[in-house]
Amino acid sequence: MKLASPLVVTDIVDQHPCFSEKASHQFGRLHLPVAPKCNIQCNYCDRKYSCVNESRPGATSRVISPQEALRRVEEVIEKFPNIRVVSVAGPGDPLFNEETFETFRLIKERVPYLHRCLSTNGLLLPEKIESVKQLELATMTVTLNAVDPSIGAKIYPFVYYQGKKLEGVEAAEVLLNNQLLGIKMAVKEGIVVKVNTVIIPAINDDHIIEVATKIKELGVYMQNIMPLIPLFKFAHLSPPLPIERKRLQDECATVIKQMRHCRQCRADAVGLLRKDMSTQLFD
Ligand code: SF4
Ligand code: SF4
What we know:
The chain is α/β, with parallel strands linked by helices.
């Protein structure tokens, strides 16, 4: 039996706590950690924790099965009727894990009124776009840190793609081409796309305006410029100061709408952005 919808959904952005600051005071989201594997390496991610492109570094989530995820959704919406968005954001790359698709299929069948959302590094977006389309995702986040493969090569030491391990500029080029094509395809399918860009001082901080310009051209809805948390190969870098992040947000705001209320959530976050309930509910 399907659960009844508490409202008629008219505007996804107005109900998505990440895509609208106003909505974040009223509506919550539920992250489902069903996707453990990742197909790339980011130099700021040591893979001991959840994907730091969309989660707070240092926070690990216990991976759950698609069936457990569905049970979690049903339990959580009983307790928190203001949940409007259910998202897969890790702990690895959602598109690289079949469990993501199974989870969304179950949720679409049982709780169709919830908006379905995912976050990805974008490598598999072009080849998965048909499956994504069938899931009728409302929103998606793609992390895009550079639109120049020579900069990308400093951020991504390797990617696994079509059975091969690619390195250096070749790896960055394949990743970038797929990210750009995938974003374009997602926008064409009517998915509202946000791009996360991590400020990596001395690597891409002078380049973020070029990322903003490119994503605007592709029809992306908004950009979320996030500070680097120095880890792994970038552990020696200093994180950007809040004033530097604001300067970049202000500069990029002349090109594309900026998200300024990101909380860098856990991959199993639940509830309002400012009041994550995951540790009370699941730890
Ligand atoms: Fe880590 Fe996410 Fe990068 Fe994969 S895409 S290496 S999980 S930050
Ligand atoms: Fe939203 Fe930021 Fe949390 Fe992602 S990490 S769910 S964009 S607040």
